[in-house]
Amino acid sequence: MKSKICPFCSKGLQEIDYKQHEHLKKFMSVLGKIETRRRTGACVYHQKSLSRAIKRARHIALLPFVIS
Q: Which long-range contacts (CB under 8 A, 24 or more apart) does 29-37 make?
């Protein structure tokens, strides 16, 4: 089984910015849920910061909580 490389580690990103909501949408499902590590290919560190960034963007209304 081939292991995935974290898309954030490969680019050398340390922090994920919550203000880049267009980039964060790529890591959300059709219904607006946060995708799992298995689907995103992110490492543990970046998956946690990704979910934190998505939650922050939701609270300041950059991203919807539920996509209908």
A: 30/67, 31/66, 31/67, 32/63, 32/64, 32/65, 32/66, 32/67
CA nearest neighbour of 45 among 3, 8, 11, 5: 8
Return the CATH number at 26: 4.10.640.10
Q: What are the pLDDT digits (tens) for 2-43?
A: 677 999 999 998 899 999 999 999 999 999 999 999 999 999
Q: Which of 15, 14, 55, 13 is nearest to 32 (CA)?
A: 55
Domain that holds residue 31: 7-59
| pTM as predicted | 0.87
Please indicate, yes or no, if residue 51 is contained in any of the structural domains: yes
**Is 34 part of any domain?**
yes
